[in-house]
TrEMBL record:
One of its GO terms (biological process) is transmembrane transport. It comes from the Bacteria. PANTHER family: C4-DICARBOXYLATE-BINDING PROTEIN DCTB, PTHR33376. Belongs to the bacterial solute-binding protein 7 family. Keywords: Signal, Transport. Gene3D superfamilies: Bacterial extracellular solute-binding protein, family 7 (3.40.190.170). Pfam families: DctP. This is Putative ABC transporter substrate-binding protein.
Length: 337
């Protein structure tokens, strides 16, 4: 396969691959002495910590890219916000200064407001509907929208059901959120959701949540139990309630500018690796959810069951107010159709 691949490589295109720098970070950099002739080394930016199953899936992606290209494309994963927050990394992709990154789909609404539809409360009835939608017409439409903005969707990562957690008290009903300062993604839907429940929304980048909790700048946040534990947030916010108000959808992206300059065989290999990484992440996430739930309890966190329907009713106006913003995408989700 390696010999066959090299017959298709435009060596001049590879050797002049993107080495532009933004804030000292390059999309592709000079190969090391152990790399095959004509190889490119590139980065994949990630905001979450190295212990996340998403990072494990990204390393799986990197290995598959290397295997499928015979070592001619080598990907290094940079987790923990090392390359900047998700918005900055997405913009670096658009300009070709970064090859790959992973981001919450709702964080891309600056390019098209419709991409925030997955952040609508109870947009998906459960995990299986979320996965089915992302594998079907809804996911294809999201990919088409991203392509219009120079972002190639290699696959999606399931980020679990999102739940409230805080340092003050257990949340059993919307009334228990009143007066709390809750971190949210930088999404108007998420902001309106928190404010509608009587709390105060505090938009922050993902890699700023831990320090904000530690310093008491926010009382809590909302995310999956996997994120909650891998980021060590149970240390500062020991009360988690299973509201399951959203199902997180992240996307693994490539820079269209960078990818279009690669030989066809390399582009095909990268797309194939993205699909394989998607399924690996879904598997890893399911395993981690069980493990991390047990671990959170062992660490002293209080995990409280609630009736999600109570929260759904409290958020009905937010859902109806925003639904029209998402147009054709909302129509592709059974819970919103």
């Amino acid at each position: 396969m390696r010999r066959h691949y090299r017959e298709h490589v435009d060596r001049r295109a590879v050797l002049t691959s993107v080495c532009a720098v933004a804030g000292g970070l390059a999309a592709g950099c000079s190969r090391d002495s152990s790399a095959p002739a004509g190889a490119v080394d590139v980065l994949l930016g990630e905001s979450v910590q190295p212990a996340s199953p998403m990072v494990a899936a990204e390393k799986f992606f990197a290995q598959k890219v290397s295997d499928l290209t015979g070592g001619l494309c080598r990907v290094t994963v940079k987790p923990g916000g090392e390359l900047g927050d998700e918005q900055r990394m997405a913009e670096m992709l658009r300009t070709g200064k970064l090859a790959f990154c992973k981001t919450l789909l709702a964080n891309l609404t600056a390019y098209d407001k419709r991409l925030g539809v997955a952040s609508l409360p109870y947009a998906f009835t459960d995990r299986e509907q979320c996965l089915t939608s992302m594998r079907g017409d809804f996911g294809k439409r999201c990919a088409a929208i991203l392509a219009e903005h120079g972002l190639v969707m290699l696959g999606f990562f399931y980020a679990g059901d999102r739940n409230f957690y805080n340092r003050v008290r257990a949340i059993r009903s919307p009334a228990d959120l009143k007066g709390l300062r809750i971190r949210v993604p930088q999404s108007i839907v998420s902001i309106d959701m928190i404010n509608a429940l009587g709390a105060t929304a505090v938009p922050l980048a993902t890699n700023d949540i831990g320090s904000a909790l530690k310093q008491g700048l926010v009382d809590g946040a909302e995310n999956s139990v996997v994120f909650y534990t891998t980021e060590q947030h149970q240390q500062y916010a020991p009360h988690l309630s299973w509201t399951r108000h959203q199902h997180g959808v992240d996307v693994l992206l490539a820079s269209a500018t960078w990818l279009s300059a690669r030989p066809t065989a390399m582009r095909d290999a990268i797309m194939q690796a993205g699909g394989l990484a998607q399924e690996e992440e879904i598997r890893l996430w399911a395993e981690a959810t069980q493990t991390k739930t047990t671990w959170a309890r062992d660490q002293g966190a209080t995990l409280t069951d609630v009736d999600p329907e109570v929260f759904r009713r409290a958020l009905a106006k937010v859902i109806s107010n925003h639904r029209g913003t998402f147009g054709d995408l909302a129509a592709l989700l059974p819970a919103l159709a």
